[in-house]
Structure formats: C-alpha cells, structure tokens
Amino acid sequence: MSLIYLDFNRTTPVAPSVIESMQAFWATHFMLPSQSHVHASAVSEAIENAREGVSMLLGCDPFEVVFTSGGTEANNLGVLGAAMLCHAGGEPHALLPSYPCNREVPPPHALISEIEDEAVMAAAKHLRLLGWKVDLVPCDSQGVVSVDEFESRFELTTRLACLQLANSVVGTIQPVRELADRCHHHGIRVHCDATAAVGRLPIDINQLRVDTLSLSAHKFYGPKGVGALFVRRGLDLHPISYGESREMGLRAGSENVPGIVGLGAAASLTARCVDEAQTTLQELCERLANGLRSTLGSQLTVLSEHAERLPNTVAIELGCDAKRIQKAARQLVVASAQSESPPDEMTRVLRAIGRTDKQIGRTLRFSVGWTTSREQIDRAVDMIAEACECASP
C-alpha cells in the first residue's frame, strides 16, 4: 500500500515546475550576482524575477521583498530587526544593551499571541535579553486571539505586536487586519507570520496592512532553506546577521540562488492556483471529517470547529491514543503532539485552547495539499477507523 501524506502544514513536496526552474542554477548559472562578469547578470536577473514573483503573490512592490534562509530567519528578522531599532521612545536608536543602564526609563513593550510559531516565540524570549518587557496574549477555546484582548494590554511603551495570519495546528485564521489598524493608531508595529497561510489563502498586503510578514518556500511547494520577509516601504530594520551585505543591507552572505529561483517559481505557481485550490482543499477536509464522524461517531471531536479555519486543516481528538493510531496506520503520515519537555508547538497550542494532556495525547492534525485525492481521503478514513478499533481497550 502506498503512502498517504496528510501533513502538508509541516512541509510540502517541491512542484515539478519549481524543480525544473532551479536546474540551471546548480551548475550552468553557478555564479553569484555580485561577480563582475557578464554571465553573472543572468543570475542577478533571475533573482530579481523571483523577487517579482513573490511580490505578485503578496501584492506588494518587489523592493519590499527580502530573501531569507526560511521562515525562521524571516520571523527573527521581523521581530528582532524591529526591536533592535526601538527604545522606549519608539524612535530609531542605537542597539539596546542587554540590560538598560538607565533604570528610570521604562523598557519597550511587545505583545505576542500565545499560539505563535516557535520562531516567533523564541525571538520573543530574546527580546527580554534586549531589555524588553514581553507579554503573551491568550486565545479563546476555538484558537482565535481577540483584538480587544490585545488592545487592553497596550501600554505607552508598546512598540511591537505579533499575530500570525493562521495557526498551523488547528487552522484558525486570526484577525490580523483589525489588529493592524488598532496598533497603527497607537504607533505600534505589527509583524505577521504567514508561513501557514501562504498557498492555502490568497494574501493581500494592502488588505492586511501589516508592517512585516514572513513566508517559507517549503510550505507551498518550493524548496527547503529559503523564505522571504515582506518589509513595508520606509520601515527601518536592523540586520541580525553580519558579514558581506546583501538584500538591501538586511542580510549577510552569499545568496542561495537556486533556492531563491525556486521560491520565485513556487510563488508564481501559487499565485495562479491558490484561489481554485481553496475550494478543493475545503472539500477534501470536509470529506475527511464527515467520513470519520460517520465511522467513529461520539469518539470524534473536531477542534476549532466553529472558527474560520484554513481550508486544508482539521485537527481531531479520537477516543484512543494518537501514537497508537499512528503505529497501527503506518502508511498514513499525519501530525501528533510530542509530549517530551519542553513541549512542541502542537502541545503548546492545544494547551492554549484548554485541552488537557490526555486530550492532547488523543489528537491528530490532518493537513491536505494540492496532490491529495479523494481516494486517499477515503483510504485514510478506513485506516483510522481500523486503527481505532485495534487500539480500543
């Protein structure tokens, strides 16, 4: 029996057209764009074409796109790059010391939703080393963060707010536009992690109105090890890596040319397909949830069922241990929580929406993709039903 892959939120296969676009840049066009040779101009042109592809996907200008090594670096640059240029007054300033010497000056303040990606959460921890005060904003039982809750925590020194566009665990879509409007009214920057949303939802920067936004190529059929950060025109950021300056002074080191070309190709492909794909992905998820509900009945709970969610994502709690299900259904690739300490992102998000550790241990996250078929969904339902029967005491 062939593998059934239903973990597209973790990573996606590289699309054939993306692989083809990258081929020439491994050996034929191997130069760096900074080299003084006519053949290097082809490389430089390819990078700018990729930048334009990403800008078309996001609805921004090409010069607002900064290439990174992936979503993690993009999130780090969006959070720390802004923080390193802010002090309590909110104006560009020299780097903050680890612990501000002037104790009479209140520290700058950041608000981070408690269900953010690990990269954003880790960057938030580092903010404290830069002298920042950091508060986590909770979500409700559906996995949605309240803009009113965010606003109730605004302080005179609040300089940064972070809210993801969609959660990769339960799929909930967050009120980013509304938060951005309220933050900007108070002079607060907004960083948005969109890594889980790109390829599943259309993205329009002008509608979201965020200041920085991150994406990762391997989440939407591009290669691993490359991503991008949207940086709104006129916004200052400080680089977080040092060396030979690249990407408008915000990165250091040689460009990952094949990866950047692949990212551009994946962005162009996604821009053409995302609208049509939404409907198909939604139908597949509904087929999965309805099939499991029909088979398992009261043993099944669909998480965040009453919230607006990504069309490709459904998290369910079963009546038996998820690890035992995965062990019994070996040909099925889905996500489950890792209980080891420190808790992984899935555990952390499920705890945030009020799930107990026992419930978390019974939870699986399914995420379908462009290559998922109805036949695969039906087979997955049968496999899970059989596995649940075998795992029942």
From TrEMBL:
Its cofactor is pyridoxal 5'-phosphate. Keywords: Iron, Iron-sulfur, Metal-binding, Pyridoxal phosphate, Transferase. InterPro entries: Aminotrans_V_dom (IPR000192), Cysteine_dSase (IPR016454), PyrdxlP-dep_Trfase (IPR015424), PyrdxlP-dep_Trfase_major (IPR015421), PyrdxlP-dep_Trfase_small (IPR015422). It catalyses: (sulfur carrier)-H + L-cysteine = (sulfur carrier)-SH + L-alanine. The keyword 4Fe-4S does not apply. Residues 4-379 form the Aminotransferase class V domain. Belongs to the class-V pyridoxal-phosphate-dependent aminotransferase family. NifS/IscS subfamily. PANTHER family: CYSTEINE DESULFURASE, CYSTEINE DESULFURYLASE FAMILY MEMBER. This is Cysteine desulfurase. It comes from Aporhodopirellula aestuarii.
